[in-house]
Amino acid sequence: MNKVLILYASSTGNTEMMTEAMVSYLESQRYYVVMKSFEFDSINIEELLNYDLVLIGTHSADDGEIPFEAEHFYDELNDINLKDRLIGVFGSGESFYDVFCESIEIMGDRLEYLGARLVPTRLKVELEPDEKDRLRCEAFVKEACEMIEETVGT
Ligand SMILES: Cc1cc2nc3c(=O)[nH]c(=O)nc-3n(C[C@H](O)[C@H](O)[C@H](O)COP(=O)(O)O)c2cc1C
Questions:
Q1: Which pLDDT tens digit goes with each residue over 16-45?
Q2: Ligand 1 centre from 49 Cα, in Å?
Q3: Residue 67 DSSP label
Q4: What is the fold of 3-153?
Q5: What pTM did the predictor assign?
Q6: Which ranges constitute the DSSP H helices of the chain?
Q7: What are phi and psi of 51, to 5 degrees?
Q8: Which residues form ligand 1's pocket by a CB distance below 6 Å?
Q9: What are phi and psi of 14, to 5 degrees?
């Protein structure tokens, strides 16, 4: 069974709702899923290496920076070998701000720089996900899962 780890930072619950939509879809497809909050759960950086797919969700605050609760994790990414690890990034922001969902770009760029194989879509949602956004969450996860299948098939 393929294993998926979803890590998220969410201050008002919007990114968390995206995470929940992804977990429901993955579980319906019989993936083994672990969901962890940067704020409330302990995350050992090495555990990323135990999963076939890692999805990282962050809200954007303070000029689109990485949320403070995910900063330590972001710094620790340097300590593991992410070469060819399959990772997707997503989150909620608000287009009212100059840099919409910038934390997702910062996280995605860093992971790519460190050699991870990034899911091409970096999923950004305006504030609270609506029904259409939930479908976008599912499509994002499907895209990622197809990449797992490709890896297994090689
Ligand atoms: C102080 C503050 C700064 C913010 N800065 C940004 C920003 O730079 N870019 C952006 O896209 N959204 C920004 N936002 C909007 C949040 O990212 C948005 O409300 C998002 O839906 C929060 O997601 P969450 O509920 O998962 O925490 C900001 C919100 C606050 C309160």
A1: 999 999 999 999 999 999 999 999 999 999
A2: 30
A3: P
A4: Rossmann fold (3.40.50)
A5: 0.97
A6: 14-28, 68-76, 102-113, 131-153
A7: -120, 150
A8: 10-15, 59-64, 92-94, 97, 99-102, 127
A9: -70, -45
